[in-house]
Amino acid sequence: MANPDEASSSRPEEESFWKKIRGQFLLGPGEIYLNTGSFGAVPRPVFDCAIDAMRRRELNPTRQTEAGNLGVSEARRRLASFLNVAPEDLAFTFNVTMSINMIVHGLTWEAGDEILTSDQEYGAIDNCLHLATRKYGVAVKRAQIPIPPPGPEAVLDAFAQGITPRTRLIVVSHIATRTGLITPLKRLTELARQRGVLIAVDGAHAPGMIPLDLTDLGCDFYGGNCHKWLCAPKGTGFLHARPEVQPRLRHVVVSWGYSQQGATPGEGGRPQINGRPALHGLEMWGTRDLAHFEAVGAAVDFQERIGRERIAARGRRIAAYLRERMQELDGVRLLTPAPPEMSGSISSFELSGFDGVSVGKELYERHRITVPCNPTWMRVSTHYYNGFEEVDALLKGLKALRVR
Length: 404
Hints:
Helix content is 41%, strand content 15%.
């Protein structure tokens, strides 16, 4: 964990740089936005890209469709480079929930098959898995992860103990939405491969928070959001699938990406439909707003100009400062793992002493602070457009609200 005093000593030069970055966002004056974990803010160049694409489309909604498709193809290429995968292996989706549904409900199941997940998964994904138990007769087992885990081995051991001869798929968050736990994903993927089990990753929080190399991680399936930490327009996400596993996926929604004659083998073992990568066909759910997907490329460019390592370091530095300051409040327990390789820009806390207080509502109404919390829990997202002074304001607000 970074020392907050060291972080503070870098303020004059660093804070000048980050203040200029903050000035490129559309966040309102006086807003202290600490909820990138739900929705990221969009910088002006990305917003302008989306608006320009929408304006061009409306010049002739029919004739401009092809130009929009070309713009989306370029954005796919930029995102694929950012993730270190081939564009042919990347489908654009609206969000991670859509991506995981395309995996879970796109695979073929037999009654008695098992899906292994954890007890720290996002509620919408839990619903997706519950439907799978109803539709296909599969069993969903849960690895019990300590909160917080003492180290990566505790996570790996929990999954290793949960794998049985009936396990067909592991579904796991790269970064847990409630605690900020960063899963030791590469090692878990290696474990899954050794046991002959597919692995699908809910990567809602990783793209744009931490450097991400999907080829190196080796996961079979990886769904990610672009509208959180990558700061792309809302409703933009992706699904990546290794070429070797793509033939296993069926369409969840059937549209023009489907062929009644079936898929044909393509380059690198990828299936093709109508001369296009079959994975691209899986994303075709009818008419959608191409402008927002075009702007994903601009979001990648914006982050690349800053530097992904620099962005990750910024988030961790402010998170370290936050965690140190939170120790000033009695009855606060950090839920995010302490080992640096297991935590990033999400800090979650168990709270006491706020009984009967609408903490989130009062923080916003009194201080214009947006942070998801209730009397017993709080999650703080510290992204590169946040500052140390915003952490100070949060602590001041919490101290004023504390009832005992």
